[in-house]
Amino acid sequence: MTIRGRGTIGDDRIAIEEVLYRYASSVDSAQMHQLHDVLHPDLQAQYGNGELVEGADAVITWMTDFTKTCEWQHHMLNVYRIDIEGDKATALVYHNSFEKFAGADDVCFLIARYHNELVRHEGTWKISKLVFEIVWGEKRPADNGYIATVGGRGTKIPGWP
Question: InterPro entries of this UniProt entry (predicted)?
């Protein structure tokens, strides 16, 4: 998929929002290879107080390793601000996510903010810097009995975990 933006500020804003949302949906669906569509090859990323991760391939490897035992994830993003100046942009994205890891009886809940920088790379917007500022988190007991009363998790969608 190519997400292009070379028109009005509104066109660029829509293209940038698509990049930001596609980042989260690629992680949620465990389709990490799709992150190449939205990450700049020379990306710099920091998640929480972790070490700086440099390069799109390194971030994809890091994300794959971090989520390898994840049974499911659900990100909810709200793009609060995008500032565009030529072929560069910054974005502030509010983030809530839920994750359930294999063998755990808890669901992890995070509230955070992404501070992103994006650049137009070969005509396509890409995330070139990503800082994941964790604001709050907790683990909540998974109530699988409730899920059963509402009919279970549902059918699998082909290509999704």
Answer: NTF2-like_dom_sf, SnoaL-like
